[in-house]
């Protein structure tokens, strides 16, 4: 009898210890890695780095600083008055940016008052831990690759598909580095960085150490067949970066979610739409999206946008006029548009609709490129909003 009681008591203690272990488990915080990347890759702050890296980082940051100064002059300085005049003061401060690979920067340009930004793309966020263990030579090589990969982003605010795909194999986390670069450009600093998944209800579930360890040896698969497969664990797919304006206390949130927005994938993985629907009506940004929203096999994300946009800014890769009219939306054009930039889209019905849309309205000025140009390299944007 005594032995039986002792056995039961031992089992109870095991259960209690297990429960205590679960209760003490917390999401893994990567803010120290974020701050290191912020300094080395995104060139934020003036902190000293390891002596063997100082010349490498100085060389990298000289180029980044020069490019960023040109970008700021066009978009944050001269372009500010245009955005202030066009974006409504009462537009939701929750922003959804589908097809926004690596491009927190453009969202901060257009919507500096946003308190929550969600970017969605095929690219996984990336493992932030590697920088601490890379040799000086590997850091130099990786920073050089990063400069090639972000060149378009910090010149005209757009990434090519090739560059985004290449980022998945850089030793530095290409997406995270690009997001931190956006923070530097906008005068923000990171205060937290965590990784997460979406549960079946679309709720954010932050990764604990056990989650990361369980996936450590799992090889990531690309979300598109012709995208280069990531060289890091799938645990580092989705990232949340909390940030604030330097000198201020208000905390804002950026989440990047790696997801294929095609109908086939979306049908089998409905968690993203469930997550986005919880945000209610949102401000939307679409640019450089390869005209995917024109196609029949991207209807699910298009339907979500039409059901939930309170105000949307896009280039011609946004919502085609026929879909906008059916959803009782109106569209206002800026700049010039004579046809699609990519030849493969120039015969599409949506292209004809956009050409007619621009012809039907008075010309509204657009003093800079923001997204794709048209077939004649003309800058253009369109606002879509409920009637």
Write the layout of secondary structure elements.
Layout: H1 2-24, H2 31-40, H3 51-78, H4 80-86, E1 94-98, H5 104-110, E2 116-121, H6 136-150, H7 153-156, H8 161-167, H9 174-186, E3 188-198, E4 204-206, H10 209-215, E5 238-245, E6 252-258, H11 263-268, H12 271-277, E7 282-286, H13 299-308, E8 309-314, H14 321-326, E9 329-335, H15 349-359, E10 380-386
Parallel strand pairs: 1-2, 1-7, 2-6, 7-8
Antiparallel strand pairs: 3-4, 3-5, 5-6, 8-10, 9-10
Helix pairs in contact: 3-6, 5-9, 6-8
Overall mean pLDDT score? 89
Shape category: globular
* Residues in helices, as a percent range: 40-55%
Order of helices and strands: HHHHEHEHHHHEEHEEHHEHEHEHE
Estimated share of beta-strand residues: 15-25%
Structural class by secondary-structure content: alpha/beta
In terms of per-residue confidence, which ranges show pLDDT below 50 for 5 or more consecutive residues? 14-24
User: What Rg is obtained from the alpha carbons, in whole angstroms?
Assistant: 23 Å
Specify the biggest β-sheet.
10 strands, mixed
Number of strands: 10
Number of helices: 15
Distance between the termini: 78 Å
Strand order of the largest sheet: 4-3-5-6-2-1-7-8-10-9
Could you say how many structural domains there are in total?
Answer: 2
């Amino acid at each position: 009898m005594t032995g039986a009681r002792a056995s039961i008591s031992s089992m109870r203690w095991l259960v209690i210890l297990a429960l205590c272990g679960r209760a003490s488990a917390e999401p893994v915080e990567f803010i120290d890695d974020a701050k290191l990347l912020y300094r080395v890759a995104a060139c934020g702050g003036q902190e000293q780095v390891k002596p063997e890296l100082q010349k490498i980082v100085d060389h990298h940051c000289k180029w980044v600083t020069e490019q960023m100064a040109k970008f700021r002059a066009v978009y944050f300085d001269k372009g500010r008055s245009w955005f202030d005049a066009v974006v409504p003061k009462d537009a939701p401060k929750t922003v959804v940016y589908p097809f926004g690979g690596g491009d927190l920067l453009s969202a901060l340009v257009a919507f500096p008052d946003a308190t929550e930004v969600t970017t969605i793309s095929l690219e996984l966020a990336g493992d932030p831990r590697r920088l601490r263990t890379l040799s000086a030579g590997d850091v130099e090589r990786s920073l050089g690759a990063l400069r090639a990969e972000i060149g378009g982003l910090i010149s005209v605010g757009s990434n090519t598909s090739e560059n985004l795909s290449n980022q998945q194999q850089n030793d530095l986390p290409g997406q995270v580095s690009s997001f931190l670069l956006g923070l530097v450009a906008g005068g923000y600093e990171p205060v937290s960085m965590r990784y997460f998944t979406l549960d079946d209800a679309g709720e954010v579930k932050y990764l604990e150490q056990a989650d990361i360890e369980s996936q450590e040896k799992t090889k990531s698969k690309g979300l598109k067949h012709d995208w280069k497969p990531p060289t890091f664990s799938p645990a580092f797919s989705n990232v949340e970066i909390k940030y604030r304006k330097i000198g201020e206390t208000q905390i804002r949130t950026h989440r990047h979610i790696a997801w294929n927005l095609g109908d086939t994938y979306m049908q089998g993985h409905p968690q993203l739409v469930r997550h986005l629907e919880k945000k209610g009506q949102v401000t939307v940004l679409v640019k450089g999206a390869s005209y995917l929203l024109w196609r029949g096999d991207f209807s699910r994300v298009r339907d979500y946008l039409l059901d939930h946009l309170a105000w949307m800014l896009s280039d011609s890769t946004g919502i085609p006029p026929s879909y906008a009219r059916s959803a009782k939306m109106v569209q206002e054009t800026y700049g010039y548009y004579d046809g699609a930039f990519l030849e493969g889209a120039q015969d599409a019905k949506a292209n004809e609709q956009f050409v007619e849309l621009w012809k039907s309205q008075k010309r509204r000025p657009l003093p800079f490129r923001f997204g794709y140009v048209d077939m004649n390299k003309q800058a253009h944007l369109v606002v879509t909003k409920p009637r």
